[in-house]
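Example: Solute carrier family 16 member 3.
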Amino acid sequence: MGGAVVDEGPTGIKAPDGGWGWAVLFGCFVITGFSYAFPKAVSVFFKELMREFGIGYSDTAWISSILLAMLYGTGPLCSVCVNRFGCRPVMLTGGLLASLGMVAASFCRSVIQLYLTTGVITGLGLALNFQPSLIMLNRYFNKRRPMANGLAAAGSPVFLCALSPLGQLLQDRYGWRGGFLILGGLLLNCCVCAALMRPLRAPGPVPGPAPQRPPRRLLDLSVFRDRGFVIYAVAASIMVLGLFVPPVFVVSYAKDLGVPDGQAAFLLTVLGFIDIFARPTAGFITGLEKVRPYSVYLFSFSMFFNGFTDLTGSTASDYGGLVVFCIFFGISYGMVGALQFEVLMAIVGTQKFSSAIGLVLLLEAVAVLIGPPSGGKLLDATHVYQYVFVLAGAEVLASSLVLVLGNFFCIRKRPEAAVEEEERRKPPADVRVDSREVEHFLKAEPEKNGEVVHTPETSV
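Written out as structure tokens, the predicted fold is:
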């Protein structure tokens, strides 16, 4: 196609599981924090924007919605860019775009201009950082990958706890325009994180002719032939319909029960604080030798736990009940956040992960745009918050059943044709195999011998 792929993840290079990987993990932690917390943090400026432009809350809420839609919906575009140019150049470009969007927003004179700058440009910039950072994390960690994913995912609650009060402080001192300008400067740190994403290189020259690399597709749609990926994508899309609904409505639910505004807002702080510890803990547990083969089932349990928490939260009748709900929701939400990409990595493997995550995020973008608005319409029609929590819980529970049943019946049982092919390839019992040939085979094809790629069979 003309351009060199800088950090494609050379075939046969074993993940270092440390070393420079810790710097990559730190960069991924920061990128994840900005990507997930920023759409929620800008909501502190909404009241000021409403007074400035004379608009309603629904108009300002579209800023966060567009940010999230860009973060999820541009997944295939990010996959194409990464496969074409490499992770580091894409992330550097994304950091500049994210910063440029917020700086330009500080000069906006209408809410439409805010949609374009803060929503589209900054959202695209964050998307171009988020997905490549996960790809690089997958290349640097293998045995410790569950723990690395959990630590990186902890960036979301940590940055949410930091960016929200920082945004309020900036608005009080400098107004929303000055706040947007300073936040734009902070987003330049994404470029620093991009510089940490050093491509993996072969340790030294290999004697003999260099192996021919198969042509790399910009967007590998062959992942849809993998039943494990299809089941995961369907389950994740259903899950996202209800996963983000309770955090959106829990504060309003508390106010409807007569709880003061300050105490109601504190519920999100409780949820975020628990989430900070739940994500790395879930990652550490998943990385245990006896637990990791069952990571798919653990992910399904976390989804079931989250859905069940939503259903029980609908019975809360006072502030204490909502605090207990937020504690258990924070635990289950953290487990889901730590495991979702780890399971996807285990299903599709290293080489197809860049395309797989882009397609999954595109499907989830549709669900993100449907989930919270559908909960809002149900609330407008019934004026009963319990129904919203029941709907969200039912959706997440359904997703857990889709994943565990699909995994058990469709992935765990290998096709008979594959078993027959494996039997056909086995050498006859009376044929002796030279040990030098075995050694050459293991060195020539490390990916097929358990060093890099994880298939659904090996992950279950």
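The chain is about 75% helix and 0% strand.
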